[in-house]
Write a structure and sequence with these properties.
alpha/beta; Rossmann fold; four-stranded antiparallel beta sheet; 10 strands; elongated
């Protein structure tokens, strides 16, 4: 048990040093600022320690037992100058160093943000957004805490402790230094032991806090679902369970802090009392002056105040290291998909896409695709149909290289997409996904996201091509209309058309339509399908569809079943074959006929879309 605890302690210490080492480059980039800040720090501490020395001279000069010949004006002026210098140099130090701290926070936060975007889709499907955002928030604050406290609290205490030790050893009996140093050793040992105990409590509180935030964010993102099932109280109770756990952990944290503070205060009080008794005995014996008594008191106060502060500094630094560790753990997440060293960009001109004997599974226990082979010639359209769960959307994810195939290969113009940069592969492909999620921004921003450097005219042109322009200009704020979180202010069909416009604006050589018209009514579907057919005419297109009526004009149709291509051919050929495609077509035609409006059904007026 003890060996395991020592092992964990050693691993924690190594982890702390690893985190500190990661910050060294930021200090080195601003080494001149750091050096100037340290000079100001030393000046402030020298002035601080000099204050009791000057006060001793003032008190001795004003001692009523000796005749006052002249007012010690020089010492009084020096005292005021030293007091001012202590604050002045401390503030100058902060002014010089603030850019170092802020730049480090900026660089680390940007690095974590970029790394998160470089991680695989698998990581993002499993992560909890609320917890990750809270970890980054606390981690960046931890950087500021660590840099500021490590440089401006630990170093000053060491420096001040050294200066006080010199004064005590040169001006007083060795017993003064012995009591002072003994108290410091006991103080530091007590602080470190109790603080390490408290860190376990604080670490648990942090984990509960992240879990609580995750629960709140997830519930608010699913606001409509909560309302659909009248589960407001259920969500509140689940949230309150996490709040209760955090309350318990936080109370334990504060109680342990109180115990730590009381112990520290007791050690300091005993040390100061002992030294004042020694100094008073020296004054009574005529070996010390009243000024010496004031000097000892002033030195001890100036030593123990920062020493007391050091206890808090240690706690804050340890907490900062814990917070930063959670953030840096995100940086340690391995990229599942990596570019090969020196990988070139893809030549996407006249793109021909081939799937060659592709096998894939998200989980080894469940096969998704098995020996899938097909070709999409340049400028041609291939459609993939099949029941839900047959692996249709997985083809798009593999083409985008969100995952790498387990077997076989995917090539564009004969080049394995694993041999070129991911950036160039994704630049060559435009997608209209089945589940369109928009940024919490304007309609214009979401369409322009397809090509951020596009002109306003090009954005409007893409909107017209996607048949959403007239809807947008009819809104009070037009293209500046905010779409809300995940685009919830728009209907499913409106979001789908924004996604289509975004893909059109990107203008890629390869297009992927993953159930691109699934959220549209029949009339809108026909209009947009005609537009998609026109746009895909000169592009390599992969159409993933559930509604077979949207793929009848495809150059080739693949029927996927349990991860295998069981039929392929043109629409007419597949109907005549009388296989799975023909049965799916017949079933959908029967459903379409049953959905036709009767005389008693409400019919949409000309120019008016059916409700819903």
């Amino acid at each position: 048990m003890l060996s395991a605890e020592f092992s964990q302690s050693g691993e924690a210490a190594r982890g702390d040093w690893r985190i500190v080492r990661m910050l060294f480059p930021y200090l080195w980039d601003f080494r001149w600022r750091v050096a100037i800040a340290l000079i100001f720090l030393v000046a402030a501490k020298l002035a601080n320690v000099a204050v009791p020395l000057v006060m001793k001279e003032i008190v001795d000069a004003l001692d009523s037992s000796q005749p006052l010949l002249v007012l010690p004006l020089a010492f009084l002026l020096m005292y005021g100058a030293l007091r001012l210098s202590t604050t002045l140099f401390a503030e100058l130090r902060d002014v010089v160093f603030v850019r170092v701290t802020r730049r480090a926070i900026r660089r680390v936060a940007l690095g974590v943000f970029r790394h998160l975007h470089s991680l695989s889709l698998r990581f993002h499907l499993e992560r909890q957004t609320g917890g990750v955002s809270r970890d980054i928030e606390r981690g960046t604050k931890g950087i500021s805490t660590l840099l500021s406290y490590a440089l401006f609290s630990i170093i000053p205490v060491i420096l001040e402790f050294t200066l006080v030790a010199v004064v005590l050893l040169t001006r007083f009996d060795w017993t003064f230094a012995a009591v002072t140093f003994g108290a410091v050793v006991v103080y530091l040992a007590f602080t470190f032991v109790v603080s390490e105990w408290r860190m376990g409590i604080r670490r648990l509180a942090n984990e509960i806090d992240s879990r609580t935030n995750t629960r709140a964010v997830d519930s608010l993102l699913n606001y409509e679902t909560v309302k659909y099932f009248n589960n407001e109280e259920y969500e509140a109770n689940k949230y309150d369970e996490n709040l209760r756990d955090f309350e318990i952990a936080d109370v334990r944290t504060e109680v342990s802090l109180g115990l730590l503070n009381m112990g520290q205060s007791a050690i300091i009080a005993m040390a100061v009392t002992s030294l004042m008794i020694l100094a008073s005995q020296g004054v009574v014996a005529g070996e010390l002056t009243v000024g010496d008594l004031v000097l000892v008191n002033g030195l001890l106060i100036q030593l123990y105040i920062p020493l007391n502060f050091l206890g808090m500094v240690y706690r804050e630094i340890k907490q900062a290291l814990i917070d930063m560790d959670r953030m840096f753990r995100l940086l340690n997440e391995q990229r599942e998909i990596e570019d090969k060293p020196g990988a070139p960009d893809l030549n996407d001109r006249n793109a021909t896409v081939r799937f060659q004997h592709v096998g894939f599974s998200y989980d080894p226990r469940r096969r998704i695709l098995n020996d899938v082979s097909f070709e999409i010639a340049a400028g041609k359209t291939v459609a993939v149909v099949g029941h839900s769960g047959s692996g249709k959307s997985t083809l798009a994810r593999l083409l985008f290289r969100f995952y790498d195939v387990d077997e076989g290969m995917i090539t564009i113009n004969g080049v394995d997409i694993r041999d070129v940069t991911q950036r160039s592969v994704r630049a060559a492909i435009g997608i209209v996904p089945q589940d369109t999620v928009l940024f919490n921004d304007t309609i214009f921003y979401n369409i322009a996201y397809g090509r951020p450097e596009a002109s306003p005219e090009e954005v409007v042109g893409a909107a017209k091509a996607a048949h959403i322009h007239h809807f947008v200009v009819g809104l009070p704020d037009g293209y500046q209309t905010a779409v809300g979180e995940r685009g919830l202010k728009l209907s499913g069909g409106e979001k789908q058309r924004v996604a289509i416009a975004r893909a059109l604006l990107k203008n890629p050589p390869v297009l992927v339509f993953d159930e691109a018209t699934s959220a549209l009514d029949s009339r809108s579907e026909r209009a947009i399908q005609a537009e998609l057919d026109r746009i895909a005419a000169n592009r390599t297109a992969l159409v993933i569809a559930h509604r077979l009526s949207t793929v009848v004009d495809a150059d080739e149709i693949l029927v996927l079943d349990h991860g295998q291509v069981v039929e392929r051919g043109k629409h007419r050929e597949l109907l005549e074959a009388g296989g799975l495609y023909e049965s799916m077509w017949r079933l959908q035609q029967e459903q379409a006929e049953s959905d036709l409006p009767t005389a008693t059904d409400a019919v949409a007026l000309p120019g008016q879309e059916p409700a819903g």
